[in-house]
What does this fold into?
Amino acid sequence: MQKAQLKWQWEITSRTSYRIEDIKALWSYRHFLFSLVRREFLLNYQQTVLGPFWLIFPPLVTLVTYILVFNKMVGISTGTIPPVLFYFSGIVLWNFFSDCWSGTSTTFKENAHLFSKVYFPRIIIPVSLVCTHFLRFLLQFIFLLCIAGFYIFFRDLKVAFNFWLLVLPLAIICVGLIGLGMGLLFSVLTAKYRDISNLVTLGVRLLMFVTPVIYPLTSIPQRWRILVEINPLTSFFEIFRKGLLGEGTVNLGMFLYSFLFTIFISFGGLMIFNKQGDKLIDVV
Amino acid sequence: MMQPELKEVIEVDHLSKLYKLGTIGTGSLRQDFQYWWNKSVLKKPNPFFDLQNDESSLDQKDFIWALRDISFKVNKGEALGIIGSNGSGKSTLLKIISRIVRPTHGAVKGNGKLSSLLEVGTGFHEELTGRENIYISGYTLGMKKEEIRRKFNEIVSFSGVEKFIDTPVKRYSSGMYVRLAFAVAAHLEPDILIVDEVLAVGDSDFQKKCLSKMREVSQSDGRTILFVSHSMQAINNLCDRALWLDHGVMKEIGKTSVVVNKYISNVQKLNIQQSWNTPEEAPGNDNLRFKHVELIPQQLAPGAPLDIRTPFTVKFQFWNFLDNVQLNSGLVLFAYSGECIFDLLSPIALCNKGIVEGECHIPGNFLNDGPYYISINVVRDTSVPLFNFEECLSFELEDYRGGLQYYGKWWGAVRPQFPFQLAQKEFIVL
It folds into this structure.
């Protein structure tokens, strides 16, 4: 009996499992992951006239719009943070999240052809997308740091160092993970039920309004604040601003809540993706 | 890692695959939820279809068994050909073994690294250069970075696109594209290689190169190949054993030549004999009615399929209702496309009421491969048509090329073997 079990290295049956794939097997696909990320960058910026400028241009246009509309016209206060920094930090982080979520949520639909022709761990595709968006975020983040530097050195902006700066990298990763987890979950759903892909677009748009992207959490009246606080992204956005620009509303409890949610959604998404992923080829 | 005592590398064990027809992809959420609720929470059998208990109730038109209870084993170093008509489940079988789709029942067990080549150019992207595509396609097919780097030059020279390697592949001709794509695939070094009909692309020269590469791989390196093709020639040349699938059921597995012959004789469009007992029901008119038409092949071996080498005889009989007439008969052979290949005339014979018989012999090594049909007509006084029996016989000739390693479609309406010599005339140092 023992021997019979040892005999075969792999087996394919109708059963799929929630189990997260062998890390070793995934590791052997790392070059594939890198080349997918590279491809994404090449495809996006290679044949365009302005090239990498497109990385910075869209958030800058958004920034100008937000400042005009929300700061000048509506008059939302950004506290001590200059509006440019306030909005740009929000936009950059929000774009990272929404790109991760909406990008990965079409994994099966977009790659149906590839998936029906060759096998590799399917998770590579969404992870490569998140990596691409992360790199893009990183470049925009550096740009944000440059603007912040400008304000600190030439405009006398005072940013006090605080504990949350140390948590900042983790907060960024968590934002990406929530995006990935949601994306994985929705990639399965959109493959099965086409209608749901419309929901993602709508969801991304609406979710932004209960996330402190265009307003600081402090500007929300106390009795409505719960609506924003229940959103796990909120504390990460506040940490982002607090750590970087010195102003934000966050406490350990909020952070823990968001962190636990991140773990829950990313593992949940991954498990469902693994369990359903191999079956979905019949449907897409 | 080496376990020489293990001879089997793949075991397919009672494999079945059920496809749901119709509403694929638009399953209602309620139905899925109900299914999940019953199965996981109430532990009740599936209300929609319970595979374990009642399979017969399944045979409705909503479901189709793409594969049904397939079991076989493949040994190390063996090349197994999979044949069958379209929709027989060949591709589904390969996809299950490749892990792309999951079976409904049964299992596939295996040893070693498996790569599958279900289309040419998997992972290729139009906008990227040849160089980038070699890497990304190699990764997609499961190659390692080191492996690609090591073989990069070999891949490029195999494909013959050296000059264009840094040009985006969208500027390639389709031939170059295919060559580059196959070159990557041909340099895969898995223990088990799965190939689906990729030889249908590319020019004949390149096909030859690919096939010999594949043979080299299976014979010298002890790799195992599973190969699907519609070209019986390619299967015959490359594979040791063949598996014949018919509507998802395994019809036959065994020595390639035996299985291939059985398969061909089964699927050939044959209508090689027709007889009528009484003139009343026979085709014809007041002048004559056909009693019997038959095509008799002189098969090289019993049960062998009709191929281009097979000579055959066409025999026919008709009831002649006319006295003292000069009759002659025409035998017209058409390709299935409707194109006339030849029109043979019999000598004139003086006939009276009764049964008239004709016989015509057509040699082997004359017609090209393909489907044909025959019409027979009878003419009086060399010019008055009496009756034309259209499409009274049809048959199909299989290809045969011996050891010739060319698998493209052979040109021409006929393929006669006329004397043809080629020899070295003179030696000159050039």
User: Anything to note?
Assistant: Chain A has 13 helices and one strand. Residues 18 and 271 of chain A are 5 Å apart (CA to CA). Residues 1-5 of chain A have pLDDT under 50 and may be disordered.
